[in-house]
């Protein structure tokens, strides 16, 4: 097993992130981008729920390129160094910033949307660079150490369309002096705590930025409410999660059935999590 360097593991605990971690080879990353483009063309042509959930949350259940990445030994070994030998993939998320895109994401925390208990010590998001990620193409920025404060309230910064499109923003002031740009070469990855405050900027370059985010958890994590499922990638137990199976080929029949059920199950839980969070915040303001 390839173990993450001790200084990276320590940085994850203290800073809330660890990067760069070498994962895919340049050839593997290049192949993944090509396969990803083909995948997006296919799901767009099919439409329906497959297109709706093309970028989140279960890409690895229907596409062999994503399945290969979530099982990549260098990535799973790195995660094991942080979380231990019992590992599940809870979700995959595709983040693409097209060439010359003005889109951006406000400072936020992933944990507030996920509806998971136990994530504080037993979960990590791995952000895999399928292309180079740079300041110019809108890479992520971390607020160093922000995970130590736990989750914070979120709100839209204003009612104008641009701010709404940037997403909910953490309702505390982020000190730009502690912000760190996540600069990676294609094939490298970054690992961050689910309570890490982060944002991303516009892409000013002529090339698209492709990243696959993978949420790994251990069986100690449990859904806050309702059924959920996850894919065992190392170890023996799925804990409170219904077990998922790997695809045997792209979009095979059994994989599609599983994908539709798992995506609908997850969407229901996330919708309920956001609704309950909003209710709690409204009560806090009264």
UniProtKB/TrEMBL annotation:
InterPro entries, alphabetized: Phytyl_CoA_dOase-like (IPR008775)
One Pfam family here: PhyH
Keywords, in A-Z order: Dioxygenase, Oxidoreductase
GO molecular function, one term: dioxygenase activity
PANTHER family attached to this UniProt entry: ECTOINE DIOXYGENASE (PTHR20883:SF48), PHYTANOYL-COA DIOXYGENASE DOMAIN CONTAINING 1 (PTHR20883)
Protein name: Phytanoyl-CoA dioxygenase family protein
UniProt lineage: Bacteria, Bacillati, Actinomycetota, Actinomycetes, Kitasatosporales
């Amino acid at each position: 097993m390839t173990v993450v360097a001790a200084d990276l593991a320590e940085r994850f605990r203290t800073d809330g992130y660890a990067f760069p971690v070498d994962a895919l080879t340049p050839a593997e990353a290049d192949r993944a981008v090509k396969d990803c483009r083909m995948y997006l063309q296919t799901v767009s042509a099919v439409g329906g729920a497959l297109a709706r959930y093309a970028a989140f949350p279960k890409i690895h259940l229907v596409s062999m390129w994503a399945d290969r990445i979530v099982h990549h030994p260098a990535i799973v070994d790195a995660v094991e160094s942080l979380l231990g030998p019992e590992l599940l993939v809870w979700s995959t998320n595709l983040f693409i910033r097209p060439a010359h895109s003005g889109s951006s994401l406000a400072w936020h925390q992933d944990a507030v949307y996920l509806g998971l208990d136990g994530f504080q010590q037993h979960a990590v998001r791995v952000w895999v660079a399928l292309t180079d990620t740079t300041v110019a193409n809108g890479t992520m920025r971390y607020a160093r150490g922000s995970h130590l404060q736990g989750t914070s309230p979120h709100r839209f910064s204003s009612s104008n369309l641009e701010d709404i499109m940037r997403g909910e923003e953490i309702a505390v002031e982020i000190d730009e002096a502690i912000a760190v740009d996540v600069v990676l070469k294609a094939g490298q990855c970054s690992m961050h705590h689910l309570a890490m405050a982060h944002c991303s900027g516009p892409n000013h370059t002529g090339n698209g930025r492709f990243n696959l985010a993978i949420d790994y958890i251990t069986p100690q994590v449990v859904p806050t409410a309702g059924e959920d499922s996850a894919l065992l990638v190392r170890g023996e137990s799925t804990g409170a999660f219904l077990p998922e199976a790997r695809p045997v080929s792209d979009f095979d029949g059994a994989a599609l059935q599983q994908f539709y059920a798992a995506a609908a199950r997850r969407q229901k839980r996330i919708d309920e999590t956001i609704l309950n969070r909003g209710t709690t915040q409204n009560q806090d303001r009264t």
